[in-house]
Design goal:
This protein is 73% helix and 3% strand. With 267 residues, the protein is mostly helical. It has one domain. Strands 1-2 form a two-stranded antiparallel ribbon. Helix 1 packs antiparallel against helix 2, helix 1 packs across helix 9 and helix 2 packs antiparallel against helix 3.
C-alpha cells in the first residue's frame, strides 16, 4: 500500500504539471486509503503537500511572465484569511462524533470525507465538460469585479481549509471570468494563490494534529518529482486533451468515497 501511495504521489504531481490542476483533489484519498492517515490529519497534510508542490510549479510561470501578481493579491488575501481561520477555529470546533444512527456512529472524519467526495464530483464535472470555443484573448486594461472576487476567494479558502484541496478547478474559471485573465496566465496565477493559501492555512493548524514530518517530507518530494515530470511531458502532450479522462477518474473516486463512507461503513 505504501508503494502504491508513493507512486500515486508522483501521479498527483504529474497531473499538476501536465494539466495545471486537479492533482491536489487526489491527495486526501491517497493519504487516507493508501497511507491509512486519519481524515482530519490528511486534510492538514494535504495543505502542506499541495502548497509546496504548487509553489515549485509556479516558478516556471513566474519566469515566463505568466503570473498576474495584482490579481493573486486581490484574490489571495480573502482566500488566505478564510483558510487560516477555518483550520485554526472551524475544524477544531467540529465534534469528533456528530450523531449516531443505530450502531453506526457518524464522525468528523466521515463528514470531511463525504464533503471531499462532493467536491471531487464537482471538480470532475469541470474537467469532463467540453470547453467552449475560445474567443479572442482579453485586451486593454484589466478590470476587476472586486465584490465577486473577494466572495469567491473566501469560499475557495473555506473549502480548502475544510478538505485540504487546492481548489484550482474553482480558481481558474474565476480568474478568467472575473479578472479577464488569459488562460495560461490564470493557471500560473492560480498556482501562486494555491501555494500561498495552502501553506499559510497549514500554519493555522490546531495543536490536535500531530505532524509526522519525515513522512510528510517524503510524500512531498515524490509529488515534486511528479510535477517536474508533468511539466516536461506538457511540452509533448496536450494536457487539455487528457483532462476529460482524468475527470472521469476523479468522478469514479468521488463515488467510491461516498460508498466507502456510507454503505460500506454501515456494513
Amino acid at each position: 500500500m505504501e508503494i502504491a501511495g508513493y507512486l500515486s504521489s508522483i501521479i498527483i504531481g504529474i497531473s499538476l504539471g501536465l494539466i495545471g490542476g486537479g492533482g491536489s483533489i487526489l491527495t486526501v484519498p491517497v493519504l487516507v486509503y493508501l497511507f491509512a492517515v486519519d481524515a482530519v490529519a490528511a486534510t492538514a497534510y494535504s495543505l502542506f503537500i499541495v502548497g509546496l508542490t504548487s509553489a515549485v510549479g509556479s516558478v516556471s510561470y513566474f519566469q515566463k511572465g505568466l503570473v498576474n501578481v495584482k490579481t493573486a493579491v486581490i484574490f489571495g488575501i480573502p482566500s488566505i484569511i478564510a483558510v487560516f481561520m477555518t483550520r485554526a477555529f472551524i475544524v477544531p470546533a467540529i465534534p469528533s462524533e456528530l450523531f449516531t444512527v443505530g450502531n453506526v456512529v457518524a464522525t468528523k472524519s466521515h463528514m470531511l470525507m463525504l464533503l471531499f467526495a462532493v467536491i471531487m464530483i464537482a471538480a470532475s464535472y469541470s474537467m469532463i465538460r467540453k470547453a467552449k470555443a475560445k474567443g479572442p484573448e482579453p485586451t486593454g486594461p484589466q478590470k476587476f469585479n472586486y465584490p465577486l472576487i473577494v466572495l469567491e476567494g473566501a469560499i475557495v479558502g473555506l473549502i480548502t481549509g475544510l478538505v485540504g484541496a487546492g481548489g484550482g478547478f474553482l480558481i481558474i474559471p474565476a480568474l478568467v471570468v472575473l479578472s479577464k485573465l488569459p488562460m495560461k496566465e490564470a493557471v500560473g496565477t492560480s498556482l501562486v494563490i494555491i501555494a500561498a493559501k495552502s501553506l499559510i492555512g497549514f500554519l493555522g493548524e490546531g495543536s490536535e494534529t500531530v505532524i509526522n514530518w519525515p513522512f510528510l517530507a517524503t510524500v512531498s518530494i515524490f509529488a515534486i518529482i511528479g510535477i517536474f515530470i508533468g511539466m516536461s511531458l506538457s511540452k509533448r502532450i496536450d494536457g487539455e486533451k487528457l483532462k476529460p479522462a482524468f475527470g472521469w477518474f476523479v468522478l469514479v473516486m468521488g463515488i467510491f468515497i461516498i460508498l466507502r463512507e456510507t454503505v460500506l461503513h454501515a456494513n
